[in-house]
Amino acid sequence: MYSIDDLKKYDYFNNIDFTYALDSLTGVLSRANILGFAKQLVETNFPFTMAIMDIDNFKLVNDNYGHMVGDGCLKYVAEKLALYVGEDGLVGRFGGDEFIILYFKSTKYDDVHEFLEGLLNDGKVVRRKISVGNVKFYVTATIGCATFPNDAKNYDDLFIIADKALYRGKTKGRNCFIIYVEAKHKNIEIYRKEQVTLHNAFSRISEFVNNDKRTINERIKYILDFVADYLQISEAALLLNNKTIYTSGDGYQCNVDDDCLKIFEKLTAHNNIFIPENLHNYQNDEKMNKFIQDKKIITFIVAKISISKKVYGYIILFEEKITRIWQENDKALLIYLGKVFEILHYKDMLK
Hints:
The protein has twelve helices and twelve strands.
């Protein structure tokens, strides 16, 4: 979508590896770079509007038509959104079905209102029927936005305020836009779905496992894509002892070799799950240090997959953007994935 020429006019991208600048599915900016760019705008005191756009009921698209159609929907919306914003701003994928829009042209209420009204109402982006393959469906979206420095003086507050506006739009029934106004929206409390959806994540993964219309390889890929998106991490990967690898396809590539497998064998020798406390502790381990440097890993968590005490592979969750603190839910999900891939292994043997 965006090209190097589109981005190099902004100073922020002079020090960015363009290999990872864009979201691999949609071609707009990746999560790390759209947020990083927004932070730089704040640091340089450049006035702008931040909008968070959420495609309405996107889960139903995936459930009814499959993830290939869902991916097609995301690519379509991203392309139309980038074209609509044009040179007046930049678009990035925040994750899942959410996009971030940075609008440079104005922070005035009336101008922002006109911009968002055109986005929703002229049928160029959403509020229209789209076709993906042989499937046609109607797409709408909800948008919340706030401006810097009018509504917030720092990045964290700006994001929270835009998120509040988005939340307000969802509670009003979706298919609308909300421009943050302090008198109306200051006291909105957002209740995070992540606090209550681990069980839902298990259920969703179970659906993938039992979807006999998909090949085993397709089911593995869908599961890894879902986990990476659910946890908002750089990559989820399944490495097998025969050097087969499956990844969630976010531009990350892990070359499986004997050294790589020996590292994971060593790390999980005493426990099924290993979480490094500090990667600096491995600077004296030549193989481990090379692995970390080659993969540009900030942190990771790994679990071995064993059947009847025989290890046949490893699940790894990588983060290459931030120093993530792995939570109990992350570990619970990893343990569940081990059982899932064990089931898929048996299904594959029984074909």
